[in-house]
Amino acid sequence: MALARLVPERLDGPLAAxxxxxxxxxxxxxxRGGFEPQCDSWLRGADRAFSRRLGERGWLGMTWPRxxxxxxxxxxxxxxxxxxxxxxxxxxxxxxxxxRQVGPSILRHGTEEMRLALLPPIARGESVFGACYSEPDVxxxxxxxxxxxxxxxxxxxxxxxxxxxxxxxxxxxxIVLCRTGEPDGIKHRGLSMLIVELPAQGVTIRxxxxxxxxxxxxxxxxxxxxxxxxxxLGAAGEGWKVITGDLAFERSGPxxxxxxxxxxxxxxxxxxxxxxxxxxxAAIGELVSxxxxxxxxxxxxxxxxxxxxxxxxxxxxxxxLGTRFEADVAHAARDLFDVVPTLASADxxxxxxxxxxxxxxxxxxxxGANEILRGIxxxxxxxx
Length: 384
Fold this sequence. Notes:
It is globular, with a radius of gyration of 21 Å. The protein has helices spanning 16-31, 41-44, 48-56, 75-87, 93-109, 112-123, 239-252, 255-258, 261-272, 278-306, 312-336, 348-363, 370-380; strands at residues 129-132, 148-152, 155-162, 173-179, 191-197, 203-209, 215-228, 232-233. The protein has 384 residues and is of the alpha+beta class. It has a four-stranded mixed beta sheet. A four-stranded antiparallel beta sheet has the order 2-3-7-6, with no helix packed on it. It has 13 helices and eight strands.
């Protein structure tokens, strides 16, 4: 198992039984061919059937109230499940956006009707959300979005274009940041978050292919798409408040430093199978120590969230450091061993190196460019 070298069960104390349970599940899935391990599995591995199997075990919406389909477990328990699945390269992308950030945002800002209608399907692994935030010429500066929703009888009509919408082509619903009022000189004013249920008239979804040729990202165009008032998340005009909390969930999780952990595990195994090499030992030792530091930081952010805090600064720091770590794992693998990265290789090390190298340009961009994140950290420290 991928994490066995890095996180022995004995270190978990009361969480050890849960970790053993998840590892047993992953082992069974692999033995029966339930999935093929991959790097960056939270971005590229969408499998509705696998998501449903996680939902059946109570491993989605773990921290949510039972009345909304949750299981009222701790953030640390959720962390254990996520950590094991990511380390195994399991196909979790189908439910990722919905369970990681949309569900918690609905819990915080949604109406009771919205919670009862939208949260249980997410917890069952039956609901795929696409996040429509960034736009052409906007990038990570979300306060500058130009997609607009106009007030009409009973709701709103959306006009505009979004890019980099993960899993938009297979989504059941889209959550859209748009402008519903005037900014009055302050860019983040007048924004709202609307939920579009698919299929919907006026929505056009076009693929944006990765370097690998995979279809994960999308461009989404809204041409007068109607959204009822009941699907405004939070009050109209409070979109910035909603999305800043949303992004804290998006940026702080272990996926921000575990995309290439399956490769790190293979790298450790490869080094152990060869004659002792001080250079390899030093490089791998540095990576493992960085992983443990990031893991501790991410657990700390989870603890803050469990107490109801909004750790935007801490989450930005985890993502900045974590995404650079992910790329460094790929660089170390190529530097230490003579390898020809090949996506179709039967050799898992070669395949994981190829996946990591081809995906690495996106690590420091998705969820907010590192330059934006450093600005958030600086502002949180009172430096700007």
